[in-house]
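Entry for the shared binder. Reason: the reviewer on the internal report wants the predicted structure included alongside the sequence.
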Amino acid sequence: MMYKKLKIYMDIPIEKKRFSTSNILKIVGVVAILSLIIFVYASTGGGSKLNVETERITISTVTKGVFQENIPVNGIVLPISSIYLDALEGGRVEELFVEDGAIMKQGDPILRLSNTDLELTLVNQETSVYNLLTQMQISQTAARQNTINRLNQMTDVENAFIESQRVFNLNKTLYGEKAIGKQEYLQSQNDYNYQKERIQLAKEILKQDSIAVKQVGNQESSSYARTKNALELMRKKVGDLIVRAPVDGQLTSLDAEIGQSKNKGERLGQLDVLNGYKVRVDVDEHYISRIYTGQQGTFPLNNKTYTLVIKKVYTQVTNGRFQVDMQFEGEVPEGIRRGQTLSIRVALSEEKEAILIPKGGFFQETGGNWIFKVSDDGKSAYKMDIQLGNQNTEYYEVLQGLKPGDKVITSSYSNYKDIEELVLKN
């Protein structure tokens, strides 16, 4: 009986539990993983949305129009030319004839320097010239007296020659007629020959004397001329102690006070020529290969637009910038002044037809690679890949991704750059 009871007991089926602990843990794990996937997908832009009020964003329309690449720069108005005033000679400032900003005429005195050493040198130079002139006068007087003496001697020699010739010719006739002896004839012949050689020698001496006198005179004249030129140069150096305006213009940046010592070559100021103006412009070195003479720029002033042309490019780069000089083409603005700052747009290309987007803060976040495009119903905006080309102060050039009439958000994307779609709320 016991065996049967035991058998009956073992044949009773044991009912299993429907949810075990391990199964529950597996289900919880799967749910957690799915939740994490959904969260990551939503966080990484997998269709994430954000409600945005339209009054907080800028919606612009893509257009087609004339496009010209340009860059904004600032320029300072300067005189068309300036002449620097340097001290040609060093000295002490003794007198100021005008003040900074004065309008000058060519030759007007600006200031006077004093230089005792230079003035003393001038006095010594003048004394040397006067002494040399006196010596020349004495030498010329002596030369003239010597010439007179030689001419007198020449006269005596010529007279003696003529007399000896007469006596010789007479004795020659008388000797032929046997009226005089041979001794007397030979004596007159010898005297004639002597006087003949003597007059030839006297003529040669007089000729050489004339040449010598001329050479000495030329040397003295040349020496006097050099000394006199040196004197004139010294007078000019002393005259340069009075600084004068080299041209008509306005005196600016005068740096001189009475009693101040100035070295030779030191800058005293500058004179601005007032017959025109130029504009000195600073340009980023990024554009140095695209800036050249002849390019134009424009700027607005008093509700009018004026044109400038690049005339000179300074290729030296300082602190990441280089400079160009521009001059007005056509009308010059009335009342423009030296030192005035102008905001200029310099054209880098010719005008052309292009698809355009107004510039905005979106570019800082997207780099021009994508943009939020507004849907046709105006209720949302979604990301759109685009490609931009050149730019100017107002527009970006669109190469791909948009067409005229499209509406895009051009304000900053800093608050929703990771969002895929914006829901626009009025």
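Summary line for the report: Residues 1-12, 39-46 have pLDDT under 50 and may be disordered.
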